[in-house]
Amino acid sequence: MQYYYAVFEVGEEGFTEVYFPDIPGCVTFGKDWDEAFRMATDALAASLAGLDKKPTASPRENILSQTNGGDVVPVILDSRIMRSYEKSVRVNVSIPESLLREIDTFRGKHGKTRSGLLAEAISTYLEENAQA
Q: Record's InterPro entries (predicted)?
């Protein structure tokens, strides 16, 4: 589990502003702390998507010494969100015809594309079997 520290500060307009000192340009905000945290999780994933080499996360003490206040909070890098920002690559995959019909029925009921459903299913499978 990889995480980066974010600084949460309440701005003049009452919004909670968030920035990641280790990731220049990775900033966001929310109308309250909870929304700001959700937005920070998304902003972190979007900023790091597609990077071959992720920046090194600084120790919390280093981040604390660089701020003028605010809360320093660890934000976990969500691999599912990050994948949604990565470039997709077209591949040719063979699937039994009956399974493809099941996939199409399921995805139709849930408003998903074939590619989206298969990527989500593979991601879930890999996460659940990573310990094996």
A: Arc_rbn_hlx_hlx (IPR013321), HicB-like (IPR031807), Ribbon_hlx_hlx (IPR010985), TTHA1013/TTHA0281-like (IPR035069)
